[in-house]
Amino acid sequence: MAQKRKQSYYDFSLVSIIVFLLCFGLVMLYSTTSYEAQLQGVSPTRFLRSHIIGIGLGLTAMFILSLIDYHVWKRFTALAYVMSIVLILLVLSPLGKSAKGATRWIYIGPLSFQPAEFAKIAIILMMAYLIEKNARALKNRKIMVMVSMMILVLPIVAIIKVITNNLSSAIIVFGIAVIMIFVATPRYDIFVIAGTAVVGLVGLFLYNLDWFLEISDSFRLGRVMAWLEPENYPLNEGFQTLQGLYAIGSGGLFGKGLGNSIQKLSFLPEPQNDMIFAIICEELGLFGACCVILMFLFMLWRFMVIANNAPDLYGSMLVIGVMAHIAIQVILNIAVVTNTIPNTGITLPFISYGGTSALFVTAEMGLVLSVSREIKV
């Protein structure tokens, strides 16, 4: 009876929050894209239907993965790592396609996806495996082991950045690896030193920004200038940021009401992607935005509960990796929308438009649920 009860355990709290965020995302997506779809001469539900396909596939993958013993994935760690690199390199082949100035997608017939999304899962699997195998070494020779682990991570980060010009995904992949090592390492002095050095370099860069602008015409430096003074670039780099801030400010405490956004009427570029949080603020106000943030915090709390009660280190690290992914992406997306950091084009998990993102982020939930099923109750 005890064994039967153990096998039937399922974290329905986490499932509930996943379903809620997905349904909320569908409502906001329709509200955000119906006008733009009609301008393009297609059905108002065109974006919605495309997104539902990704969610349907993701939920199916989540359910299947949740029923599979997560230890099975140890055998496929190296394969997933190599596949992630191969898939990213395929964007340079005839299967790759450019859109909006970047080549990040692979098209196979009518289907398309971003290989960088698969790389995030591959890094989670690889880091969880390496940390479990080197758990004792992390206590005694932690610097050497940490460097060895990051040597395997950096090629994927570099390939994502150079091949697909997708800095945001490269940052997320790197951040996942760093957070997983940080959690697994008993001493944090090296992270304090590294963090201080990074903050110092960023401060030095911003202090000498004028000099960097003189020697480089990189569009990313333009984004930094638009972040610092968006009102000075109202027609180019700062346009999207300003329109997003107008949406947030005009929403007030309780918003204009669902479907009543003004900025989505061709004022805010690509509102269904990385700027959908601005539409949430405009239509639902500060109250609605805080509710969305609280829902994500509740999800992260459930991740922590599962990670703390996981039966082994490997399962715990898998959950920590997924938690790191969601946390980084949510924080960076909201920071970009509120102009806290320069624009990096990061979507809001479960809510922003994108079939590939919805598929893989929902599939990751299957790994977490698989770990939760092994918790003894």
Summarize it.
Helices cover 69% and strands 4% of the residues.
Helix-strand layout with pairing:
Elements (H helix, E strand, L loop, with lengths): L1 H6 L4 H28 L6 H22 L9 H13 L6 E4 L2 E7 L2 E3 L1 H19 L3 H4 L1 H23 L2 H18 L4 H19 L1 H7 L3 H10 L10 H13 L24 H34 L3 H25 L17 H18 L5
Antiparallel strand pairs: 1-2, 2-3
Helix pairs in contact: 2-3, 2-13, 3-15, 4-5, 4-7, 5-7, 5-8, 5-14, 7-8, 8-14, 12-13, 13-14, 14-15
Please tell me about this protein's structure:
- By secondary structure, this protein is mainly alpha-helical.
- It has one domain.
- Helix content is 69%, strand content 4%.
- The chain is built from 15 helices and 3 strands.
- It has a 3-stranded antiparallel beta sheet.
- Helix 2 packs antiparallel against helix 13 and helix 4 packs antiparallel against helix 5.
- The longest helix is centred in the C-terminal third of the chain and has 34 residues.
- It is globular and about 55 Å long.
